Amino acid sequence: GVSERRGEAEPARPGAYATPLPLAPGSVLPVNGLRILPEVADALAAGRPVVALESTIIAHGLPRPDNLRIAREIEGRVRAAGAVPATIAVVHGRPSIGLDAETLEFVAGSREVLKAGIRDLAPVAARGGHAATTVGATAHLAYQAGIRVFATGGLGGVHRQARDSWDESADLVALTGCGLTVVCSGVKSILDVGATLERLESLNVTVLGFGTHAFPGFYLADSGHRLEWRVDTADEVADVVRAHEALGLGRSAVVVANPVPRGDQMDPGLHDRVLERALAALADSGVRGKAVTPFLLEFFHRETRGASLAANIALILGNADLAARIARALTIT
Ligand code: PSU
Ligand code: MN
């Protein structure tokens, strides 16, 4: 049967999605098997700005039915800032770069859409399944397609129980092999932020604070950790990215950490109280592996009655806007 448990690997029923999703005329396949929406392919071919967007936040990180509306708003924000959005997911086994309206609705609404990290891409593709892609998997596919900028909410990282569970998001290692600029609001505050920053240093990942030396705390503007590098404009980010590429570092990502606007952040006291309860509930639940992050995010959205959701929406929209401006700055040579 169809799994009601989100994020677990269960073979998808091929053909359950009525529309056959044929290759649209004009789609290009730069790498065998990638399906690129014509609008995105045209923009890439013409050197116009494109912003990759992930789909795990839509399918497994935001509550339904708000998630579909938010997914559309994220795309709208990229467009408003002058770039073409390319939301990425695997549909009918095809890694898809840019989703048409119908496919976006499917990804947001279907229980058959798994959560795929990089290591899940091949099995999902081989089985003709459907999957939302994590930051790591999205970055990989976007990089393959030639996209240079990617917006998300918060990166995965080192979980607080990692000393016992060894749970560190595969997003971190993915950043070492995908040469794009990743705009995020730091790493999710459910994580061990200090440990994650240490791992990013070990992995040689460049991290820039946007308008701040304070590393953002996802739902909170400031995680309490300091960053060495601060940039203040999209042009400055583009300068760093060009230097990064000129130095032969272009195979790894540059992370731009963009805080949620202060006025939109969660109340820090509420945040800390809910987090403590969320971690206790996690320990009691026996939830493991890739179901951990969706469990914690869902706990927050439910228990804060929308306060965490409001912050999440504000930060992702801000990141979409900044990513589009960076993509534009990068197209000016
Ligand atoms: N940021 C959000 N919401 C999310 C995620 C990030 O605002 O749902 C997702 C991303 O797809 C990220 C994933 O890659 O959580 C990390 O999961 P894990 O901890 O299992 O690696
Ligand atoms: Mn994990």
From TrEMBL:
Subunit description: Homotrimer.
Catalytic activity: D-ribose 5-phosphate + uracil = psi-UMP + H2O
Required cofactor names: Mn(2+)
Amino-acid biosynthesis in keyword set: no
Membrane-spanning intervals of the chain: none
Gene Ontology cellular component list: cytoplasm
Matching Pfam families: Indigoidine_A (PF04227)
Family: Belongs to the pseudouridine-5'-phosphate glycosidase family.
Domain of life: Bacteria
Active-site residues, record numbering mapped to chain: E54 (proton donor), K188 (nucleophile)
Keyword Calcium: no
Name of the protein in question: Pseudouridine-5'-phosphate glycosidase
Binding site for Mn(2+): D167
Swiss-Prot/TrEMBL keywords: Glycosidase, Hydrolase, Lyase, Manganese, Metal-binding
EC numbers: 4.2.1.70
Primary role: Catalyzes the reversible cleavage of pseudouridine 5'-phosphate (PsiMP) to ribose 5-phosphate and uracil. Functions biologically in the cleavage direction, as part of a pseudouridine degradation pathway.
InterPro entries, alphabetized: Indigdn_synthA-like, PsuG
Any one GO biological process: nucleobase catabolic process
First-tier enzyme category under EC: lyase
Molecular function as annotated in GO: hydrolase activity, acting on glycosyl bonds; metal ion binding; pseudouridylate synthase activity
The record's free-text note on cofactor binding: Binds 1 Mn(2+) ion per subunit.
